[in-house]
């Protein structure tokens, strides 16, 4: 325990001592107060009077002592008693992007992925999460953030939009239907008349460059959870193989997830591209559930930062505050006794 402002005591205590000495040394004028009464010697020798005066002196002395103690405690509180505390914190230094192909053929897989990824986020500590979706073009729904409530709210909206895509008749309100229809299509199908759709390589490459400080911050683990059936239906700027090489160069690990239905040849190419980054390919058709896949990614992708230590002074006013309250209460009680 230490005092943040010890000078308050250095100044206050000597002044308190000086005032106390001045009080004791001051000569009291016995006739200064009250009314003169003759023949008090007899009264002073009465046992009852002596007993009352003895009690009075005890109470007055206690009153003065309590007053001094109260002032001392007040000085201590002004000095701010504090304790130096060292707190240790550790967190996983992962950046995770959920990169989802919004083609209708991947809707069912994406719905399961969103549902299970939501549970994963609730257990994260310090990781930053981002969400991108793509078809012809890529759109960032959530930039990297540790605001998990924001991410969870976005996943909820994404879930509603995917469900609407799978069953448009489920929503009868026109405004809501329009909102859900555009939620995963606005921006993602930009230029599809010319370039086509499901541009897998472009979607993955775009996601990589949403990681900040790729060259500078090399201590962070960067992961992309990549869901697609790799069913290319257009002309990409970047092929899946080229996007895979970009991920490898930038030290971004890709975990790929493919739906149950899909061309085995396309899955094979996707598997090769994913493993090129040091990641793992998961095929829902192999019997693994999305829950197991996400759990597997959770275990493989952890990288713990060094423990951070923070030393700070924490005010500890509780004990002196209680003592001050108690002493003030005693002063009130004794004051009433003196008046009697």
Question: What features would you describe in this structure?
Answer:
This protein has helices spanning 7-25, 41-44, 47-78, 107-121, 148-166, 174-183, 192-195, 200-208, 240-249, 264-276, 290-300, 318-339; strands spanning 2-3, 81-89, 94-101, 128-134, 138-145, 196-197, 221-227, 233-234, 252-258, 281-283, 308-315. It is an alpha/beta fold. The protein folds into 2 domains: 2-24 and 41-86 and 310-339; 94-300, 3-Layer(aba) Sandwich (Rossmann fold), CATH 3.40.50. A 6-stranded mixed beta sheet has the order 5-4-3-7-9-10, sandwiched between helices. It has a 3-stranded antiparallel beta sheet with strand order 1-2-11. The longest helix is centred in the first third of the chain and has 32 residues, at 47-78. The two termini are 42 Å apart.
Key words describing this protein structure:
340 residues, alpha/beta, elongated
How are the secondary structure elements laid out?
Layout: E1 2-3, H1 7-25, H2 41-44, H3 47-78, E2 81-89, E3 94-101, H4 107-121, E4 128-134, E5 138-145, H5 148-166, H6 174-183, H7 192-195, E6 196-197, H8 200-208, E7 221-227, E8 233-234, H9 240-249, E9 252-258, H10 264-276, E10 281-283, H11 290-300, E11 308-315, H12 318-339
Parallel strand pairs: 3-4, 3-7, 7-9, 9-10
Antiparallel strand pairs: 1-2, 2-11, 4-5, 6-8
Helix pairs in contact: 1-3, 3-12, 4-5, 4-11, 5-6, 8-9, 9-10
Structural class: alpha/beta
Tell me the strand order in the biggest sheet. Answer: 5-4-3-7-9-10
- The level-1 CATH class of the largest domain: Alpha Beta
E-strand count? 11
Distance between the termini: 42 Å
Low-confidence runs: none
Number of helices: 12
What is the N-to-C succession of helices and strands? EHHHEEHEEHHHEHEEHEHEHEH
Strand content: 15-25%
